[in-house]
């Protein structure tokens, strides 16, 4: 799961990044509303943490423009304000939940997980299955007929995306954005390398599932029947 944190307090933004990464999330951070909107519109994030009081563009305006664009990404509003009118404005503007600073770290993480579960492609549970494969989230293991291999973080993220999207074709660009992030300097070659790693592990497991290359487009899984 990739989370975008839009928070102008640098120390708090760093704390949020650390908390989320410890909980297994990939995190992007920006410190003003214009950058936050630009990042949120990329479509690569599963949840957005959005502060209300931001430089260059306030959080409510970011939220409004995000919803006007058609984006349905879950948004958790963060604010030092506690007035009812502010909370109502955020929720009426399209926010999914509202936390008032200071908040408990466990509550924040629980909110993020709850919002992510609302998205149909981010199903709950400790494992994903496709064909004869099972991807175990707690151990970062890929399992097939009693055999298993451990995956690196990026291998896991890539296999998770392929499984979640089933037989849909994922472009190299979408994999780069989802796994390496909006501001990364990773290139297509990075995707190819990790696809190669995963194919070797599928062969080692003797799985019927294969990663199919769609020339000039991207990748998808096959063999799930």
Description of the structure:
There is one protein chain. The protein is elongated. The mean pLDDT is 87. A hairpin with a 2-residue loop joins strand 8 and strand 9 (147-150). The longest helix has 18 residues, at 188-205. Strands 2-1-3-4-5 form a five-stranded parallel sheet, sandwiched between helices. With 225 residues, the protein is of the alpha/beta class. The two termini are 27 Å apart. The relative contact order is 0.11. The protein contains eight helices and twelve strands.
Strand content: 15-25%
Low-confidence stretches: none
Measured between the Cα atoms of the first and last residue, the distance is 27 Å
Q: Rounded to an integer, what's the Rg over CA atoms? A: 19 Å
Order of helices and strands: EHEHEHEHEHEEEEHEHHEE
Largest sheet: 5 strands, parallel
Helix segment tally: 8
Large-scale geometry: elongated
Strand order of the largest sheet: 2-1-3-4-5
Number of strands: 12
The structural class is alpha/beta
**Helix amount:** 40-55%
Q: Give the mean pLDDT.
A: 87
How does the SSE layout of this entry go?
Elements (H helix, E strand, L loop, with lengths): L1 E5 L3 H13 L3 E5 L2 H8 L6 E5 L7 H10 L6 E5 L4 H9 L4 E4 L4 H13 L9 E4 L2 E4 L4 E4 L2 E4 L2 H12 L5 E2 H9 L7 H18 L4 E5 L3 E5 L3
Helix pairs in contact: 2-3, 6-8, 7-8
